[in-house]
């Protein structure tokens, strides 16, 4: 029996994880399962040859294979399977590469992404004000059902996208983009998400310079500069950043002065580098980072961190190098280079700009967070890779007014 899965259902399933992440981790997992089931019965997998037209396909396939192979020399199969699971979400990129994309479905994906963030923000406000009985994740006000670090990264991604659409008015009228941007920016200010706040400060000026020519460029840059000054004038945000800088400047490995957000991260990075130099070619094994850290702490090579499970290096690149050696790091960098190059070449396309802004967050954020093994980030980078980054036909003039 041959099944016919409507394109609307297929592409909704593809976008559903992006909608679900701010609202429910379980919901995102169910969405991925639904996508896999619908894809299996849709018959789109018959277009598998299209996968190898994408420059990132071979390095991604090899990275998945090498991560699986790394289980042979791990001592921690539990965490090893978690790393394999995160890397194997790359299969979603292969799925996207075989789908029949057009303007309508790209707009649907971006709208669902923004809708998930806005619904979570509404719920977060109602929960913080006591209107709804549920609690914010981690007890942090205005985060809703989403962890504060991922939420700050997702909001930064949305604001970078809205910067493009404010100029093009491709997905929404300008006033809608402004309204959504103000709502999300307000939430970013009140959550303790330094990762997203810092990345927005770094990336938004670059985006403005790329998108806005002539006097627009200077007006936008001036408005952004005033906004940054105003933000850091707020005592709560200023004190939160000063606390982070204080922890960074006062980090002392020998005195075990590590119990701050940056202290823990730096300790994890140092441990990861030590692992890499001890096992440079093949690494300690897939998922063996935590076991190796415990051995180093038992040998007093680095301070102990009782009660803290350090299962990544708080750095995507060091994590890959420590666990999978120079081979794993090389494959990871090859994948990122191939994907970034594809996005950059046609960065004027809406799907490319949407993917490129997330890719920039993933690339830079990976220096101070282990995004490559994060559940939401591993799925998101795969979904971004699966977009039709090489197809100019999806934004031909005749398609600009598509619903």
Provide a compact summary of the structure.
The protein is an all-alpha fold. The chain has helices at residues 7-20, 25-42, 57-69, 77-88, 91-97, 103-128, 148-168, 174-190, 194-211, 214-232, 235-249, 261-278, 289-298, 316-345, 350-365, 375-385. It has one domain.
Choose one word for the global shape: globular
Count, helices? 16
Overall pLDDT score:
87
What is the radius of gyration?
22 Å
Which stretches are low in confidence, meaning pLDDT under 50 for 5 or more residues running? Answer: 393-403
SSE series: HHHHHHHHHHHHHHHH
Helix content: 55-70%
Question: Cα distance, first to last residue?
Answer: 33 Å
| Fraction of residues in β-strands | under 5%
Overall SS class: mainly alpha
Biggest sheet character: none
**Total E-strand runs:** 0
- In total, the number of domains comes to 1
Which helices and strands appear, and what pairs or packs with what?
Blueprint: H1 7-20, H2 25-42, H3 57-69, H4 77-88, H5 91-97, H6 103-128, H7 148-168, H8 174-190, H9 194-211, H10 214-232, H11 235-249, H12 261-278, H13 289-298, H14 316-345, H15 350-365, H16 375-385
Task: Describe this entry's structure for a reader.
The structure is a single chain. With 403 residues, the protein is mainly alpha-helical. It has one domain. Helix content is 66%, strand content 0%. It contains 16 helices and no strands. Helix 7 packs antiparallel against helix 15. The longest helix has 30 residues. It is globular, with a radius of gyration of 22 Å. The protein starts with 6 loop residues before the first helix and ends in an 18-residue tail after the last helix. The C terminus is likely disordered.
